[in-house]
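Quick one:
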Amino acid sequence: MSNKKLRPLLAVRKKCLNCCNKQTKEITHCPVDNCELFQFRFGKNPNNKTKLTLKTIRSKCVDCSAGSLKAIKECWDKDCPLYPFRIGKNPNLVGKRQNNIGILHDSTHQ
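Output:
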């Protein structure tokens, strides 16, 4: 399973589905309201003020790895939907910001 193109919110939704044994009704009735991902379990931001951050996903990874930052870096569960985001970066954006900076830099020096 490739998680490379997942958006963070969709990755959270998939993680919650995995946790609930693929039962969508279980997500609705999830009793684990102290989970870092609880308010994002439907794959949406709950309101305009609360947004999913990569820190939230990383926090879940810290919880999963019993607080070991080394275990997060060396995570073996490559099928986990959160795996690509575990370091706190969005792999879908790698290089895009650098390219934009380069374009801005080039246009200002003409």
